[in-house]
Amino acid sequence: MSDEEKVKVWMPLFIGAYLADTQRLSTEQHGAYLLLIMDYWMNGAPADDDEELAQITKLSLSAWKKTKVKIVKFFTLQDGHWHHKRIEKELTDARSRKEQSNAKAKAAADARWSKHRAKQSSEDSLSGASRNAPSMLQALQEAVPGAMPEGMHDQCPIPLPLPTPFETEGTNTARSETGVGGAGVVPMSAGLLSRVMREFGIQSNPADPRLIACAEQRVLPETVRAACEDAKRSKPNERIAPAYVLAIIERWARDAKEIDARGAQGPAKAQGKQSRHSGFDKIDYREGVNEDGSF
Question: What architecture is the 1-132 domain classified under in CATH?
Fold first, then answer.
């Protein structure tokens, strides 16, 4: 159905105004007049042709010519057609309302598609950053600038003893706490790390590119659990965001790199700088950390 057909489906009839203008019409004349304005609404101004007008009003030609005398005063004869001022106004208003309705619907649809495209672009950006960035924090910072302020994770103390952050090089598996899955090993996945966060009431999405990057870097569930506990201690009465937990894990990896670098300078220098973190000498942070500090 076209817009014009939709406009003509319903014709407004203001009963008070109609009756005020037609008090002196007979029953037959009322019927003829109503049939004329309804045909006008559907087909436009009728031609000034008695046979056509008689057909519209369902009257014989002679009966129409008698009725015409009373009906013609409601119309204006122009260009060989009977024009009705009020019907023309209502048709114009109906078309205008339909155009406005179409414009609003189009604007709403454009807004929805624009939002969808922006979301898709953001997801593509996050996915690309997680694949190409050398570390989890860099992936987040490249995809969402300012999402992880540099100073945020400096506020979190490192809990001791800290579990080994990463599995051995060349694998993408985590040790199973239950021993299910062969020799105590289960495939690493973002869903597994997400479930660990939810144990602490931290709502995270397994499809979050940051968690996917975390799984790809072989971060163990034990490490995520320790980071969640650390976040809860730091903010006991606050809602913890997943990004806060990931920032803690990133800081631990960076500290592991620094300790590894100090150890390369010699036992004496390394020992002198370990006093502020009691127990560091008992933990092997180098496992799973590459020489350039990436995971």
Answer: Orthogonal Bundle (1.10)
